[in-house]
Fold this sequence. Notes:
Helix content is 43%, strand content 15%. By secondary structure, it is α/β, with parallel strands linked by helices. The protein has two domains: 3-69; 98-235, 3-Layer(aba) Sandwich (Glutaredoxin), CATH 3.40.30. Strands 5-4-3-6-7 form a five-stranded mixed β-sheet. A hairpin with a 5-residue loop joins strand 6 (205-208) and strand 7. The longest helix is centred in the first third of the chain and has 35 residues, at 3-37. It starts with a helix and ends with a helix.
Amino acid sequence: MPRKDKKKAKKSWKERQQERQRAEEAERIRLEIERKYAKGHKGRPIGKIAGAVFLVALLLISYGVWQYMQPPQPSTEPPPINPQPSQPSQTTLALDFALNDINGTRFSLGGSKGKVIVLHIMGVGCHGQIYPINDNQLKQLRTVCDSFCGEEAVTLTTVAVATCPSSDLAQIRVAYNITWPLGNDYDDGKMDIAQKYATQGDGTIVLIDKTFHISDSYGTITASTLSSKINQLLGA
Length: 236
């Protein structure tokens, strides 16, 4: 082989070596770039982030399925007591009912015939929640009781509508110092007393005269007004 061809062959081998080196360097740079860009927030690899996202999604889905499988929980809100369409008049005879006080004592509305009766209807939610209307009514009744509960001629009664087993009526009795009968209309699974007397809806106070006729019903009333009405009926 001529000398000129050998020199050309050696040059081609060097060129091939250089090309291979350049290719290896380019591959090294490419891999380095991919490695840098393949890292997520705070240097965490994307694969790990994707795995973490998948795990969180799986947990959320599992929690949603678990919630769906749970039995529905009772609302903590007091049950709705809708106003009754019929309004009482002075010729309307009161409807008798019997109920257990929360301490187990049996009492009946008819057992107070001949007295002035103040009847209060109150919705109670789980764990003793009541609406502001009944917070007001109980406070007014407490003031009225201070004046009349010692008299044989006046009877106060609060009928709760508590559909939850944990209505905490005993705590309500203590909180408002209720010394008059307090029973649950829903003890028998029905709201029949509220349906008869809640003409103003939740918080209705019904005034019954000595002849066992309904004198009037009130949505809200102050202790002074209620006391005045009771005195009028006592003097009638």
